[in-house]
Amino acid sequence: MGPIEDKTVSGDRVIVALDVSTYEAAIAWVDRLPEVSFWKVGLELFISAGPAIVQELKQRQKRIFLDLKLHDIPNTMAGAARAVGRYGVDLLTVHGSAGLTALEAAQSAAIAGATEAGVTPPQLIAVTLLTSIGPDRLAADLQVSASVADYTAHLAQLAKMAGLAGAVCSPQEATTLRSHCGADFLLVCPGVRPAWAASGDQQRTLTPAEAFAAGASYLVVGRPVTAAADPVAAWERLVAEVASS
Ligand SMILES: O=c1ccn([C@@H]2O[C@H](COP(=O)(O)O)[C@@H](O)[C@H]2O)c(=O)[nH]1
């Protein structure tokens, strides 16, 4: 079943972030949490371990969110997206603020790469505004005068216009983005914090149950599970919370 079709709230819609620096550490997490079906490979792991970690996760029939957050000129975005397209991953991030032309270039190049390799193309999702940035930093650091809601809705709509499958947003914006972008647009939400987990550097958070209720398609969770004293118990508690919501 593809990511868009699966609307049931369950652990299959919770992506766990493999924020570790070695191939061996990543595989140790996959072995430790066998119930997790969808893993996020981010910059730290991909730069350290390379495509081998993607190949191993595919071998184990895990779904893969390759969170590379591509952000460049259209020609460079296209080259990178074409290369990722060949991997057969499920989701790939680009930054929405790269602009419409770059998003369109990445989208068509990812399909071209997948076609060359004979694999299913990744669904491209555009980062709207990093969940570590609050309204004060949006104005002060980025000099954006729009509200977080308006800014993220604009970038999500740009992604939709470019033909992307969805956006990355905080769960706090999920309801607004869902109403702007429609039922089939993927909303992938990091910045998720159960009541029992520390927020750390995340600024715009909701609990997992609140995030799904707001319209999230998928949640991305790292430290609430991986930094817990008992990660297996933390995963089970989180899944139980969303299943009963
Ligand atoms: O806006 C964004 C985009 C991506 N992320 C990624 O999600 C996980 C969250 O990890 P936690 O430990 O649960 O905070 C992490 O890999 C980020 O790179 C994000 O947090 N916000």
Structural overview:
The protein is an alpha/beta fold. It has helices at 23-32, 43-49, 51-59, 74-85, 100-117, 135-140, 148-161, 174-181, 208-214, 223-226, 231-243, and strands at residues 14-17, 38-42, 63-70, 91-95, 123-127, 166-168, 186-189, 218-221. An 8-stranded parallel beta barrel has the order 1-2-3-4-5-6-7-8, surrounded by 7 helices. Helix 4 packs parallel to helix 5 and helix 7 runs parallel beside helix 8. Residues 17, 19, 40, 42, 67, 127, 130-131, 168, 190-191, 200, 202, 220-224 line the site of ligand LLZGTKA7.
Structural class: alpha/beta
Mean pLDDT: 96
Oligomer: single chain
Can you tell me the overall shape? Answer: globular
* Gap between N and C termini: 23 Å
Helix content percent band: 40-55%
Bound ligands, each once? ligand LLZGTKA7
Low-confidence stretches: 1-5
Main sheet overview: 8 strands, parallel, barrel
Order of the strands making up the biggest sheet: 1-2-3-4-5-6-7-8
Number of strands: 8
**Alpha-carbon Rg, integer:** 17 Å
Portion of residues in beta strands equals: 15-25%
Order of helices and strands: EHEHHEHEHEHHEHEHEHH
Please describe the topology of this protein.
Blueprint: E1 14-17, H1 23-32, E2 38-42, H2 43-49, H3 51-59, E3 63-70, H4 74-85, E4 91-95, H5 100-117, E5 123-127, H6 135-140, H7 148-161, E6 166-168, H8 174-181, E7 186-189, H9 208-214, E8 218-221, H10 223-226, H11 231-243
Parallel strand pairs: 1-2, 1-8, 2-3, 3-4, 4-5, 5-6, 6-7, 7-8
Helix pairs in contact: 4-5, 7-8
This protein binds ligand LLZGTKA7.
Residues 17, 19, 40, 42, 67, 127, 130-131, 168, 190-191, 200, 202, 220-224 line the site of the ligand O=c1ccn([C@@H]2O[C@H](COP(=O)(O)O)[C@@H](O)[C@H]2O)c(=O)[nH]1.
